[in-house]
Amino acid sequence: MSTVEHTYGIDGSASARSWEAQDKLIYADKYIGEPTNNQGAELLENGCNFRIKTDESVRTLDLVTFNKHDQSIDAEWRLTNMPDEQTKNAHSGFIPKLQAGDTYALRVNQNELILDPFARAITKTQDGSLSPIEYLSAIADHQKFDWESVERPMISPEQRVIYEAHIKSSTMRHPDIPEDLRGTYLGFCHEAHIDHLKKLGVTTVEIQPVQQFYTNQWLLDKDMGNYWGYGTGNFFAPHADYAYGDNPGDSVNEFKTMIKRLHQAGIEVIMDVVYNHTGEDNPLQRLDKSGYYRLDDDGNYIDYTGCGNTIDTSRPEGRELILSSLRLWADEMQIDSFRFDLAPALARNSVGWWQIKDHPLLEAINQDSLLKDRLMIAEPWDIYGYPQPEGQFKDIGWREWNGRFRDLARDVWSTRQRRNLGHAANLLVDSPWAEKSINFITAHDGFTLRDLTTYNSKHNLPNGENNQDGTNDNRSNNHGHEGETDNPTIRKRRLQTAKNLALKALMAQGTPMILAGDEVYHTKSGNNNTYNQDNDLSYIQWERLANDPTKEPAEMFEFISRAIRVRASSNLTGPERTLGPIAQSPIGEIGLQWLNADGKEIQTGDPSWDQPGVLGMYASSGHTSEKPSEKRSLIYYANTSDTDAQIKLPQFDGARGHYALLLNTAINVETAEIRLNPNDSFVLAANASAVLERLSAPLPLNGTDTPLHQELSSIVDLRKVANIDPALTPQSVA
Question: How far apart are CA 139 and CA 122, in angstroms?
Fold first, then answer.
C-alpha cells in the first residue's frame, strides 16, 4: 500500500487532501450475531458491526477510521469476505471501541477511498462546500433520541392539505427565526415557522429532498450547487449541511427534533425521496455496479430519468436498497409519508417496461409491516415512454401528483384556452379516482403562482444553461406585460387569476397541495427551474407580508388561509360527494349538484356545457335524519366568461336557503362577505370565482354548530352589508 492515497468522492475527482495509509493493516474481529439484510454500521455496546455486500470485483474492503481532531487516519481494518447465498461478496466484521460520532470511510481493493453508501450519518462540511470529497461517513446512535412519547398525527384524507417546502427556502429570510438557525432543520421547526403553518391551515408538509446529497463537478465549476437535492449520495443519512451543530451525528438528532416538533403541532411530514437514480459516481458504483444500476449489454448506464445512473429495481439488490432505506426513515425517523420522484422509473421490469400492478418493489412496499400504513405518493411520470402511466398508481392504493389537473386548471384560468363549463366541472370532480389525486397548480419545478400570472416565458439565464433548461410548457399569462409592473389594472387581473387557481385546487375533490411561498405571493423573477439557485430567487421573502406597499402578499395569505378553512369545514370529499340525492335523507338532500346562473340544476351534457359561462357546484353538508353533520353546505361558482354575471341563488328544494358569500376572487378578502336571502342574487365579475356557505338548511343544525362565517371572522374583520360597495349589495330577484 502506498503512503499517500487520493480519495474519490461521488463526483469522481481526486481530493486535494492526502491521507497517509497505515503501515500495518488490522483484521476486524468476527461479526457479532447473525447477519441481517441491513448493510453499513450497526452500533453495539462495545463497538460496531459492519456488513457491506459487493460484486466479485471487490476483492478486499477495508474500513478506515479517522482521528476526531485532525481527521488523520487512526487505523485500517480489513473486513472478512463471506459470500452469501446469492454468491455476492459480503464483507463483514466487528470493530471494537467505535462509538457514535466516530468517522470512517471504505477503501476498495487497497486503493480508492469512498464514503459508505449505507452510513446513517455524514459529517458536515466546514467551508460550506457541497463537494462530496469534503465529507466522511459517521456512526450514528438512533437509540438515544427521546421522542417524549410524541405520536404521529393521524390526518384524515378529507382534511389533508399538503404544503411543499424546502428547508432553506422556508427559513433563510424569515425575520423571526434566529439567523444561526436559518437554513437548518431547527429553523424549519422553529415556533415562528410552525405558527405560520398553523395559521395558514395546512396539515402536512412535503419536504424537498433531505437525504444526503452532493453537487456534481460541472456545477461546482460554475460556483453553483445542487440546491434542490435531487441527486442522492446516501439514502440512509439526513443531509448534513442542514444541521446547526457541527458534530458528526448532529444532523440525525436535529432531523428527529424537527419531526418531533412538527408532530407535536399536529403536522404530518412527507419526505420527497429520489430513489430512481443516484448522483454521479456514487459509491454504489464501486461496490456493485451491475447489481444496483440498469446497464445495457456493453455495461453502459440506461437512463430513464434524464440524470443517468438509474437504480435497477428489477434486481434484488436495488429493491433491498430502497426497502431498507424506507424502513429506516419510517421507523427511526418517524416519517409519515413518502413522495416518490419519477416513480415510473422504479416500476420498470427487467426489460424496461412499466409494471405498476405487479412490480416486486411496489408489492414489497405495500406489504411491508412498517410501510403498509404510510401514505405513498407517486410522481407518475419519468422521461421515456408514451403514454406515461398517470392514473395507474391508484390501482395499488397510492396517491398521485395530478399533472392533468395542473394543466387543465391553467388552461381554464390562465391561458383561458379551455374555458368551457365541462372543463371547469372536470377540475372539480375529475374522475372516479379523484380521491387518489394530489391536486396542485404549482410545485418546486415550474413557475410560482405569482410568476404564472406575470411571465409568458421562462427567464432562466441565471442557471448558466443559456435559458435551455426548464420546461417551455408553462401555460402562463402575463396579462399584457412581461414581468413586474406598476400598472394597477394588470396587477389586479394577475392577483384575481392567482386566486382563481388557488381556489380551484382547494375546492376540487382530491388532496390539495400548495407550493411554499405561493401564500405570500413569492416570485422567482420568471425562473422556472431554480435547482441551482441558493439565493433570494429561492428564499421566501417573508418580510413582504408586512412591508409590501401593494398589500398583495398579505391579501394572498388571507385569501388562501380562509379558503383552506372553508374547505376544512365542508364536505367536499366522502360518500356524500356524488351527484344526486343522499341516501337516508327524507327530503332528498342533494350530495352534489351543478347549477347555472339562474339557480337551476343543470346536467352533464347540457348545451351550455360546451361554452364559457357560469358554473355552480352545490356540495351538501351530508345531513341525514339520523346524524346531523358538523360540515357546511357550500356552493362554488366559477364565471369563465368575459362578462360579469348576475347569479341567482338555488331555487330548488334541497339547496334553497339563506347564504353568506365568503370568498370572491374579484374582491379584497376583507370586504368579500355579504348575506343573501333565498330570493337574492349577486354579481360575479368576469373571470372570477366565489364560494358561498348555506346558513339555513331543511334539517336542523347540530346545537353546537357555529356558522362558518362566524368562525372566519376571527381571521379577518368582516364588514357589515351596509358598509359594502352598493354594487355588491344583494339584489332582489323575487
Answer: 8
Cα dihedral 461, 462, 468, 474 in deg (nearest 10): -90
Residue 555's region, left for phi above 0, alpha for psi from -120 to 50, else beta, is alpha
Please state whether beta strands 688-694 and 659-664 pair in parallel, antiparallel, or not at all (unpaired).
antiparallel
Enumerate residues 6+ apart whose C-beta is below 8 A from 127.
134
The DSSP element (H or E) to which 659 belongs, if any, is strand 659-664
Average pLDDT, the chain: 87
Element (H, E) at 451: helix 449-452
Q: What is the pLDDT of residues 9-47, one digit of tens each?
A: 433 333 434 444 556 799 999 999 988 888 999 999 999
Residues 692-700 have a mean pLDDT of: 69
Name the residues annotated as catalytic: 341, 379
Phi, psi of 157 (to 5 degrees): -55, -40
DSSP helix/strand/coil, 269: strand
Q: DSSP character for 441?
A: S
CA distance 258 to 210: 12
Picking from 438, 328, 317, 326, the residue whose alpha carbon sits closest to that of residue 379 is 438
Please check whether the two domains, 26-138 and 160-568, share a CATH topology: no
Q: Is 24 exposed, middle or buried (0-12, 13-18, 19+ CB in 10 A)?
A: exposed
Residue 18, number of CB atoms within 10 A of its CB: 11
CATH code, residues 573-732:
2.60.40.1180
What 3-state DSSP class applies to 257? helix
Q: How far apart are the first and last CA of the chain?
A: 96
Topology (CATH) of 160-568: TIM Barrel (3.20.20)
Residues β-bridged to residue 647: 682
> How far is residue 47's CA from residue 528's CA, in Å, rounded to a whole number?
49
Taking each helix axis from N to C end, the angle separating 421-429 and 403-413, rounded to the nearest 10 degrees, works out to 150
Q: Cα–Cα distances in Å, from 48 out to 21, 54, 212?
A: 21, 20, 22
Summarised one tens digit per residue, pLDDT across range 411-426 is: 999 988 887 888 888 8
726 upstream amide cis, omega within 30 of 0: no
CATH class of 26-138: mainly beta
Compute how many other C-beta atoms are within 10 angstroms of the C-beta atom of residue 565. Answer: 19
Residues forming beta bridges with residue 90, ordered by sequence position = 53
Closest residue by Cα to residue 83 from 52, 106, 62: 52
Residue 293 φ/ψ, nearest 5 degrees: -120, 155
- Residue 198 — φ and ψ, nearest 5°? -70, -40
Distance CA 510, CA 156 (A): 12
**Domain segments of the chain as ranges:** 26-138, 160-568, 573-732
How far is C-alpha 257 from the geometric centre of its chain's CA atoms? 20
Q: What is the pLDDT of residues 253-288, one digit of tens each?
A: 999 999 999 999 999 999 999 999 998 889 999 999
Q: Cell for 283? A: 459509491
CA distance 31 to 40: 12
Distance, CA of 510 to CA of 402 (rounded, Å): 10
Give 26's strand partners.
Answer: 77
